[in-house]
Amino acid sequence: KRAKWHGIPVLLQELYESSHLNSDFTRTHTVLKELSSLLSMEAMSFVTEDRKTAQESTFPNTYTFDLFGGVDLLVELLMRPTLTTLQKPKMNDDLVKDCLSVLYNCCICTEGVTKILASRDDFVLFLFTLMTNKKTFLQTATLIEDILGVKKEMIQLEWIPNLSGLVQSFDQQQLANFCRILSVTISEPDVGNDDKHTLLAKNAQQKRNTSPSRAEVNQVTLLNIPGFIERLCKLATRKVSEATGTSNFLQELEEWYTWLDNTLVLDALMQIATDEAEHSSTVTVFHHFGDTLATIPLRHRLPQSMKIVHEIMYKVEVLYVLCVLLMGRQRNQVHKMLAEFRLIPGLNNLFDKLIWRKYTTSNHVVHGQNENCDCSPEISFKIQFLRLLQSFSDHHENKYLLLNAQELNELSAISLKANIPEVEALVNTDRSLVCDGKKGLLTRLLTIMKREPPDSSFRFWQARAVESFLRGATSYADQMFLLKRGLLEHILFCIIDSGCKSRDVLQSYFDLLGELMKFNIDAFKRFNKYVNTEEKFQVFLTQINSSLVDSNMLVRCIVLSLDRFEMVEVLSECCLLSYMARVENRLSFLFRLVNIINVQTLTQENVSCLNTSLVILMLARRRGKLPFYLNALREKEYAEKYPGCLLNNFHNLLRFWQHHYLNKDKDSTCLENSSCIPFSFWKETVSVLLGEDRTSPCAIIGYIDEPYMELDRDLLED
């Protein structure tokens, strides 16, 4: 009594004794129920209290239960069938369910229980086998998800006994739930901040990991399950009316608590509930993960709006898994399957009724791929959908499936009129797999993009999705298709007139503008038409100059286009071209691009600054002007009273460039495609610049005076 144990040790003793090999478990279940009520009060207070105070408050009952071996006893009880065939009466489903619920309560209330369970591979794999039983499926899934979240070593899916049979036994609803668990097993840990990791660190990591990671192995395991991708495509594209089993609300409640992932969902439910008849019966929803205990008055039938939220939450999980697979090593295989199972036309048909059925404002921060998102289901769903479109069309010829037959004909007509050959990927597109309906998915995307408020983070994802359609080898017809639909004017309005302050949104719009205008004289003429006053042009330049890390891809596009056009009369047609034609402006960009990065701070996000500065110098080299530019860099250093600063830094950056790009094939094709400069010319130019002959007019070393030469030449080797 003094220790406030509430008789838990005695109850545990009884639980142990009553669960002997010949037991029929009736007494065991009664005792467990008694224990369960002592523990569940604490679990409830945990989820209803604010998390911070919850961490500080103690949960004496759960602690006592674990201290006297309760957790180990339940694990032993659950796993007994795998260890002995002697147990005569089997445990019934309700007892299994209660064991799982008590374990889950212990996990959320007592520090360390989850980690201990996670360290037992045999138990984790055993839990997967419990999923074959429909009655215990949700409790099992809930517990597995919690355990995998803290597991140090990622689990290998191929270890799960008869995984293929397990997945095939799931109905669609269970499969969607299972996708939540899968997402942990196929994502590389901490990819969320991918752009923030320095390239030095990433290269070192890659050297260490030559074999495929566990996540990659798991992706292959999933792709080998017969019918898996086809079922995911069906889940992703089914209409709300096709979702079965959502008629009886009370049955559904059990399914629900696993899904109420955050207070926002509950808020949505509360809203729906109040919209429903006030006098309906009151149902208590105990919601596991979130931070609320809600009592929701609801009719016995699920209202339509609730079915929609339900369906959206399923689809978020499924799209996430498809997206990860699309970005993995098996990309081409996944692409083929997604095309064949008509994922894109299916999503196109859901667009107005479900995906963008209503306008949701989103002021949340832009998330990385794996960061925990605290958004409402509606927002997560839209972002996941846009992310999927982005990975689907990025550098892949299947991107034309985002159009309908009429729009494909329009692309052909544009090529014909301009007297240029059609792009091969367009000719090869299988017309039976493209979007149907009045508009294709890409065109629908443009429509909603124009309606978005200036700082909405959806704009970032929308622009990324449209940009990925344009990426790869520049296609005049693709650009004209989008220009005809007013995309250029929309982007310029956003950058110049809308007062948009979000760096993420601006960066994605600059990148998109670069892809849209590259080598396209019509686009530059349209630019001039919109930016028709000096004042507007100055605002535009200010936006570009405010962060070159964000806008350098656009700078690169202008420099490349200017080099391609070469005619003097073009300059008079566009203020942007004539501005970039002035050598002092190009030099000013070059100085700043070299100055804002160094080898230690290079990331996936800012390495483009290095490549843009290289483009400026490669074009200068083609025209025999390289010594002029290098000399300008040297003069700039002396003017700033800091000799050697820019050139030493640039020298180190180029050595890193060799180290980084000469080991990989993917990056180099990207550089080649986006610049239309053969990679061999990139390599040569870097070699010439790094030449060791001080008398060479094209070697950086010749422009740094001896006393200012950096001594740490072995920096990279370290």
From TrEMBL:
Gene Ontology CC terms, in alphabetical order: Cul4A-RING E3 ubiquitin ligase complex
GO molecular function per UniProt: phosphatase binding
GO biological process, one term: ubiquitin-dependent protein catabolic process
Cited InterPro entries: TRPC4AP
Listed name of the protein: Transient receptor potential cation channel, subfamily C, member 4 associated protein a
